[in-house]
């Protein structure tokens, strides 16, 4: 009898069992596919969800997306992915899929729904069905655009002036407000007891005259949009043209502190530095002020007429078109976006109205500056100060001293540069110094709407 060659059997066994075992480990991998999602809670008329699917081990086999509502099911997407031979697994390890939902086409009505997505891989687990990842998301289907009901009338706005509109929205809208030209002024709820009533202060900048497009826009959580025009009248304003003579004495006194670097080949470095300050720095400073303005709070801090610096003379007006003359030649043109008020040197400056200090510090050509938020987008600013006596975050009462006038920044003599903004736009402060204007354009409107408000 032949001797059993155990060693041969062992080798054969090893040659079969080891690869088979290895194959089973690979094919029976238990790692589930992953789904990267960014699901909104609300969906509008039609949209497409994009998902990134991946399965690093055995590859993607199948994906199925459905929408469930009122006991019915709609198949949105079913896709099988290719595989490589019998044991190679899925060809695709990672892909992104688009799941389009067109509510009208599918005949789905508004209301609560559930979105489900299931993904399988090419593992042999679960009797060759693969590892499964299943996700469910509750959704609100909303195909209706918001309705805007305008509650105020007589929207008369001056070029460079302010306006107020009050409106009711039929549903919550994360984005709503007034669009003036290219500029957006957000609307706020919270002033009225009824949360659906919103107010928006808006403005025309000095360059926006008759013909400027003004609309209200609202978009709901599902992204449905409504735009609405409203009756308004824009009054054209003509602005003063003012000539400012620049002397070498003024330039050599003021310009070095701005640390500008005129080009090396400059024939008149002092003048070139002045132009850099007057053009580039002015622009940067105005952009910076706009970023402060939008930090306004939805709260009505102010009441009544805004105060003007007491016992002061107006030295320059809002939107004066300034020509800068040097040696008899106009070398620059800029627009003055505030009102210059001169009183005694180092006069104390009262807060023009109650508000919260938004900024204190140096702002280039404006020098030492205080910015106060009066709420709902109404901002006042005080510049060229010699001293500041308030801090950021402090609530100041109307008339409370915030600092003293001075000559910091690009000021030739002691004065206060008083500016006002609506949100991000410089406006003419004189309207806010005028009790009649405030009554007709703000207070009466708010009181009229209170008749619509909740008891
Ligand atoms: Zn000024």
Task: Please characterize this protein's 3D structure.
By secondary structure, this protein is of the alpha+beta class. 17% of the residues lie in helices and 40% in strands. The protein is built from 6 helices and 31 strands. Strands 19, 22, 24, 25, 26, 28, 30 and 31 form an 8-stranded antiparallel sheet that branches. A hairpin with a 2-residue loop joins strand 20 and strand 21. The radius of gyration is 34 Å and the shape is elongated. Bound molecules: zinc ion. Zinc ion binds at residues 316, 336, 338, 340, 417.
On the 0-100 scale, what is the average pLDDT?
93
> Roughly how many Å is the radius of gyration?
34 Å
Distance between the termini: 110 Å
Structural class: alpha+beta
- Could you give the count of β-strands? 31
Question: Which ligands does the model contain, each kind named once?
Answer: zinc ion
- Tally of contiguous helical segments: 6
How much of the residues is beta strand, in percent?
35-45%
Unreliable segments (pLDDT under 50, ≥5 consecutive)? none
The biggest sheet, with number of strands, parallel, antiparallel or mixed sense and barrel status, is: 8 strands, antiparallel
The percent range for helix content is 10-25%
Gross morphology is: elongated
